[in-house]
Design goal:
This protein is of the alpha/beta class. It has ten helices and eight strands. The chain is globular and about 45 Å long.
Length: 299
């Protein structure tokens, strides 16, 4: 069975003036529920405040948790931080943390939200409030759960916040393969960045992923991979600039799973980006990614 982490607060009403598709996480939940006994459900605790503050500026943490984020930061995030959004923002890093613990125990687990890789030290950005990847990774290292951890980010957008927030921690490495000309305009420096030209399709993408990620994994020998499995490299994605097909996305998950399985590295997956008007189609892609990874790593 595939361990799935979900919190009720992941599914909330859209705040006013939001262009983010808030129904996606509920659709992911419902599609996974339809899998029945194929999955097991786990509910996380919200990430304790002190661990949010270990990564983010305490004043910004307070602004979020008290739902008083100033207008400039609200614009960067892309939606207002209401009380419900604040509860969700604290729960998501807790979910990624729990998924990591379950992955260390079972070999794989998935959070039905997360991958908020644009959130920075003192502000959110790009639909990201708290950076669950950086928060969870920091806690894993600080509590001695792992000595070496790799964050693999295959979202179409560079994981700038994750790279910036973990840059001073040698135990945490970051990998980002992304569309070079896409958001954010100003990139951070990951341990390894792999920028791609617009329109790159399945074969070139998968070959590049393999030739760049394999040496990094073998050099670092991480004890855990946190995997930001954004599905926005798809050609039809509203915010993507790459040219992957649905089959290409599935092949990507099989490749990453095979690399982890062959080396005995547990992997915890977060949702990441996926954008467009058809929420159910986007949710289906995320669920297919989770199930593909789970089937490969828990076989």
């Amino acid at each position: 069975m595939i361990p799935i982490v979900h919190h009720p607060s992941y599914v909330t009403e859209a705040p006013a003036r939001s262009t983010y598709r808030w129904g996606k996480n509920g659709a992911i939940r419902d599609l996974l529920r339809a899998e029945g006994a194929r999955v097991t459900w786990h509910e996380p605790e919200p990430m304790p405040r002190r661990w949010l503050e270990a990564t983010h500026d305490p004043d910004y943490v307070a602004e979020v948790l008290e739902a008083r984020v100033p207008p400039a930061k609200t614009r960067r995030i892309g939606f207002p931080v209401t009380t419900a959004v604040a509860e969700r923002a604290a729960a998501v890093p807790g979910g990624t943390w729990l998924a990591a613990l379950l992955a260390l125990e079972h070999g794989f687990a998935a959070n039905t939200a997360g991958g908020s890789h644009h959130a920075l030290h003192d502000t959110g950005a790009g639909y990201c409030v708290f950076n669950d990847l950086a928060v969870a990774a920091t806690r894993l290292v600080e509590e001695g759960r792992v000595d070496r951890l790799l964050i693999v980010d295959v979202d179409v957008h560079q994981g700038d916040g994750t790279a910036a927030l973990t840059a001073g921690r040698p135990e945490i490495a970051t990998y980002s393969i992304h569309a070079d000309k896409n958001f954010p305009a100003r990139k951070a420096r990951s341990t390894l960045d792999v920028p791609l030209a617009d329109g790159v399709g399945d074969e070139e993408y998968l070959a590049t992923l393999a030739t760049t990620l394999v040496p990094l994994i073998d050099d670092l020998r991480p004890q855990l991979i946190l995997y930001q499995a954004g599905v926005d490299p798809l050609a039809v994605d509203r915010l993507g600039r790459l040219g992957l097909t649905e089959d290409g996305l599935i092949r990507r998950e099989r490749l990453v799973a095979a690399l982890a399985a062959a080396r005995g590295i547990p992997l915890a997956c977060t949702v990441g980006g996926g954008y467009g008007d058809d929420v159910m189609a986007i949710a289906r892609r995320h669920v297919d990614a989770i199930l593909t990874l789970g089937d490969a790593l828990l076989a």
